[in-house]
Specification:
The protein has 277 residues and is an all-alpha fold. The chain has 13 helices and no strands. The protein is globular, with a radius of gyration of 24 Å. It starts with a helix and ends with a helix.
Length: 277
C-alpha cells in the first residue's frame, strides 16, 4: 500500500512538472507560430495555427534588418564582454578572498552595494562619462560599460565559491615551486569552472538581449545589435509584427543553443563539486 502511494505521488509530481513545462513553452509557441503568419492573421487570431505559412517573412526581416551585420555586432560585443567580465571578476574575487585585509573587505562591500543600484539612476552620469572619455558610438565603449556593470554580481558569486576551495591545495602548490600567478591560473581557475560557467551564462543572456545600454551608446546603423534592429519594426503608429517576430526568432536562436550547450557543464560542475565535498 505504501509503495502504491509513493508511485502515485511520483506520478502526480511528474504531471505537475509536465504542465509547468508546457506553460513555459506557450510563449515560444506564439512566437514561432506567428512568425510565419501575415500581419492580418496575427491581429485576427494570434493563437490559431497558420493556414498559410509565410516563410517570406524571414527573408524580408533578414534583408531589412541587415541581420548578418547585427548578428556579428551582437556576437563580438557579447563574446568580448563575457571574456573580460569572467577574467577580471575571477582575479578580483580571488584577491579579495585570499588577501583578507580591511581595504579588501570594504572593496567587496562596495561591489555588493553596487548590485542594488538601479541602472536608470546612473544612466545619465554614465553617458556623461562616456562622452567625456570619447568612447561613445563604439563597440569598445559599450564593452567597457558592460564590464563595469557586470563585474559586481560576478565577483559576488565567485567570492563565495573561492571561499570553499581549501587553502591547503594552494599551499601545496607553492611548496612545489608554483608562483602566485601559477597558483591562480593552474590551480584555482580550473576549480572555478562550475561558477565561471554560471557567470558566463548569466552575463551572456543579459548582454545578448540588452536593448537599453546599446541604444544609448550606439548611434551608427552599422553598429546596431539584434535588439536594436528588432525595435526598428515598432513605430509610434505602426507595429510590423509579421517582420518583428521572425527577427526575434532569428535573434534568440543562437543564445538558446548556447544555453542548452552550456547547461550540461553546470550539471557536471555541481555533481563534481558535491562528490569532492
Amino acid at each position: 500500500m505504501e509503495r502504491t502511494a509513493t508511485r502515485s505521488l511520483i506520478a502526480l509530481r511528474l504531471i505537475v512538472l509536465a504542465l509547468m513545462g508546457l506553460l513555459f513553452l506557450v510563449p515560444f509557441y506564439f512566437l514561432l507560430v506567428n512568425s510565419v503568419k501575415s500581419l492580418g492573421d496575427i491581429l485576427t487570431n494570434a493563437a490559431a495555427w497558420p493556414e498559410v505559412f509565410h516563410w517570406g517573412n524571414y527573408e524580408k526581416a533578414w534583408k531589412i534588418t541587415r541581420f548578418p551585420q547585427a548578428l556579428f555586432n551582437s556576437f563580438i560585443i557579447t563574446l568580448t564582454s563575457i571574456v573580460l567580465i569572467a577574467l577580471f571578476s575571477a582575479m578580483a574575487a580571488y584577491r579579495l578572498v585570499r588577501a583578507n585585509t580591511r581595504l579588501n573587505r570594504i572593496l567587496f562591500m562596495t561591489f555588493v552595494a553596487a548590485m542594488v543600484i538601479p541602472f536608470q539612476s546612473i544612466m545619465i552620469p554614465l553617458m556623461q562619462v562616456v562622452r567625456f572619455l570619447g568612447i561613445g558610438d563604439s563597440i569598445p565603449g559599450l564593452v567597457l560599460c558592460y564590464l563595469g556593470l557586470g563585474v559586481p554580481l560576478s565577483i559576488f558569486l565567485l567570492h563565495g565559491f573561492i571561499k570553499s576551495i581549501p587553502l591547503e591545495i594552494e599551499e601545496a602548490a607553492v611548496v612545489d615551486g608554483a608562483s602566485p600567478y601559477g597558483v591562480f591560473w593552474r590551480i584555482v581557475l580550473p576549480m572555478l569552472k562550475p561558477m565561471l560557467v554560471t557567470v558566463i551564462i548569466l552575463n551572456s543572456l543579459w548582454v545578448w538581449n540588452d536593448y537599453l545600454l546599446p541604444s544609448l551608446i550606439l548611434q551608427s546603423q552599422e553598429l546596431r545589435t539584434i535588439p536594436i534592429a528588432t525595435f526598428a519594426f515598432f513605430g509610434q503608429y505602426t507595429k510590423q509584427w509579421d517582420l518583428a517576430l521572425p527577427t526575434l526568432v532569428l535573434g534568440i536562436t543562437p543564445i538558446v543553443v548556447f544555453f542548452l550547450f552550456m547547461q550540461r557543464y553546470i550539471v557536471e560542475g555541481i555533481a563534481a563539486g558535491s562528490v569532492k565535498g
